[in-house]
Design goal:
CATH topology of the largest domain: Pectate Lyase C-like
CATH architecture of the largest domain: 3 Solenoid
Number of domains: 2
CATH class of the largest domain: Mainly Beta
Helix content: under 10%
Strand content: 25-35%
Structural class: mainly beta
Radius of gyration: 25 Å
Shape: globular
Distance between the termini: 37 Å
Length: 453
């Protein structure tokens, strides 16, 4: 049909569900339906006429935009999403043990708003699997229903509705497994933070180090971190007791209220992670996580706290992580720090692990890599917490290095003063210029992300 203006047809072809039309003539409804049957072949999912009318009467058209593309409640059998539709994540959704949720490349999931127990959250429970294999050209996107992104990952000419300063519009994604964790009291399982204890799908931990929770690749998680209780928000991506049989790579978390990505124990390896503008820590490690993180980029903003926060084991079970090839960009403006805290990294509660080939860039004076207490100094002294090839690139203003930056023995700070950490800093770290920097991650790896675009 050509009787409608071209701009209207363009909008209609994208929005054939007619969400904004109320009380229009019935003959017009027929015309609109017919105009949606062109080459693009979009589908009207629901058109409900609420009363019997003649041609001259009006009707109210009710359209359920997500009539057959809503995820809610418990998923108890294998389910594959259709990437040609935008999906609504409504409330707390759990993929139950024995079931697999498959999310094809290019799929967009928009989460309904809500807080507390009603926060929209996707849980992959122990014994369940997620197969979410996006690509660099067609990443999977999880965002808020307020985001105006369209199928194909594009935005209308008006641009994105949401940016890095918009946080907390929904929960986040949690993957829970049967791999070992170090829990207080040496219990074998625990309820993950962010999920009410009444929901047993929130349990994680076990004895299977090679446990397989599926595959996540080229996934962008945006604008989450809704609060479920006082001071208790959901991370962008939570990995609780996830085993080494699980594949995690090319994951981006943007504008989450709490941590970007948090590892609670487990043995999963993760590569090429990007966290931008989180409200707390970008990458958080707890409960003797014993996997490898290879390739990470952190971009702090004025809302952010630490780049890395690492806690040690909570029980007698030990575990040591590896974190290598990472870049952390600080939040500065005219040589002054921005943000709640904006620290480089914090090691707490007898943290154990190995860090190498790390670049900390653009942090102003007073920001540090910190051993929090005596237990962390003991880990460093014992060689169970190690550092190698750490580059520090100071911020520059008007072509000159900021005057308030610290020397290495101040940047690497043992709060307990019970180790040689500060004196040793020059043996494992150096201050470099842009031309000298050789450590960190290759930023081109993240060309597919929302941050890069």
């Amino acid at each position: 049909m050509t009787f409608l203006p071209n701009y209207f047809l363009t909008n209609l072809n994208h929005n054939c569900k007619m969400t904004n039309f109320k009380f229009i003539p019935f003959i017009t409804v027929l015309s609109l339906i017919f105009s949606c049957s062109g080459d693009d072949d979009p589908v009207i999912e629901y058109v409900t006429v609420t009363e019997t009318v003649t041609e001259t009467e009006t009707v109210e058209v009710e359209v359920d935009e997500y009539a057959d593309s809503t995820l809610e409640g418990k998923i108890t059998s294998d389910k594959t999403l259709d990437a040609s539709k935008v999906w609504l994540l409504k409330g707390r959704v759990s993929v139950e043990s024995g079931s697999t949720l498959t999310i094809p490349a290019g799929t967009i999931i928009k989460a309904a708003s809500g807080t507390g127990a009603d926060a929209s959250t996707l849980i992959i429970a122990r014994g369940a699997k997620i197969i979410a294999d996006g690509t660099a050209d067609a990443p999977i996107i999880m965002t808020s229903v307020s985001d105006n992104i369209e199928v194909g990952g594009t935005y209308p000419s008006s641009g994105p509705a949401l940016g890095v300063t918009t946080r907390g519009l929904w929960g986040g994604m949690l993957i829970l497994g049967n791999a070992p964790c170090s829990f207080s009291g040496d219990v074998t399982e625990l309820q993950i933070e962010g999920i009410p204890t009444s929901d047993t799908n929130g349990l994680y931990g076990g004895s299977d180090a090679s446990d397989n929770s599926g595959s996540v690749q080229y996934l962008s998680i945006r604008h989450g971190g809704a609060e479920i209780g006082e001071g208790n928000e959901i991370n962008g991506l939570t990995l609780g007791g996830v085993g080494s049989g699980t594949k995690i790579n090319h994951v981006e978390v943007v504008a989450n209220v709490d941590d970007g990505i948090e590892f609670f124990g487990g043995t999963v390896n993760a590569t090429n992670l990007l966290v931008w503008g989180q409200g707390d820590d970008a990458i958080d490690i707890d409960q003797a996580y014993a996997g490898t993180i290879d390739g990470a980029m952190v971009i702090l903003t004025d809302a952010s706290d630490h780049g890395f926060e690492v806690d040690g084991p909570e029980g007698s079970a030990a575990g040591s992580f590896t974190l290598k090839n990472a870049t952390v960009l600080g939040a500065t403006k005219a040589c002054s720090a921005l943000g709640v805290n904006g620290e480089m990294a914090d090691f707490r509660k007898a943290a154990t692990g190995n860090l190498s080939n790390i670049l900390f860039k653009d942090f102003s004076g007073g920001k540090d890599v910190e051993l929090d207490a005596s237990a962390d100094a003991a880990s460093y002294t014992a060689g169970t917490l190690t550092f190698a090839n750490i580059d520090i690139m100071h911020p520059v203003s008007d072509g000159a290095v900021c005057s308030n930056v610290e020397t290495l023995d101040k940047i690497f700070d043992d709060k307990s003063d019970e180790s040689t950490f500060e004196a040793d800093a020059s043996t494992f770290a150096e201050v470099v210029t842009e031309q000298q920097a050789g450590n960190g991650v290759d930023a081109s790896i993240f060309s597919w992300t929302f941050y890069a675009r």
